[in-house]
Design goal:
11 helices; mainly alpha
Length: 301
Amino acid sequence: MRRVFSWIAWPGLLALCIAGYAYGTALGHPILAYNITYFGMAGVLLVLERLMPYETVWSRSDGQMRQDLSHTALNKGIGQFLASVAAVLGASQVAPAAAGGVWPAHWPLAAQVVLGLVVAEFGLYWAHRLCHEIPWLWPYHAVHHSVTRLWVVNTGRFHFVDSLLSSGFALALGMLVGAPKDVIVWVLVITTYIGFLTHCNVDMDCRGLNWLFNTPDLHRWHHSRIPAEGNTNYGENLLLWDVIFRTRYLPLDRRPPVDIGTADAVPLTFLGQLAYPFRRPLSPGQVVSPVLEAPAEAGGD
């Protein structure tokens, strides 16, 4: 029974959350629907991490829960503030209500959302990859890679500059092609759901989904201390661009490392982590590889 559940957990939880948000939106309560599905998924994954953990050692406290939650709250607060400013200044200039440019407005909404995920993913992929390959950007992203275990609570542990960079890349591409507000909101919502699923310490068997989506199977390798393993699997939601640019990595003959993290001396305090990128010398950390070469096993599955 556990093995069967591990096969259906990832797509099942994602489908339930998407269906719940769609239902709430149809009733005219998208914010309520989002909050219910957001906290609902987090709660379910926290329970599953206790019942069927992928790595039992990751169930032990690392003393960073308050810091993880603080980063999450700060990023969400900044996001809401920017959304409010956009509404006051004229949201149509940021995310127009109606499609424009080359956007296929005649497509069904579901198809437009899929296209929106593909377009946004290009920006998310390159923002993420550049943070690994450009030394002065790496310290911002190192805050995320300094975790020594993966679990649902540190999903949102990103330096706010790192978050602004990735969201800025994705939004700029959406504006360029004329994606409407509804599609952009849907992409943001789905990104949140997949982020939880990607980071959770739950024993999930994603199999063929590893060629389509960023799954925990792939993301655990991304957190490896070894550059040839960690400089891979940059996708946020989809694996399309990792496949195209040959940065997908999933060896079948061994498990991802339990000892994850980075050689960078990222402080343990929240304020210290916020200040770290501004104080750190401009040199790449252990995970950074100036010239990326995907490992020989890349693409295996």
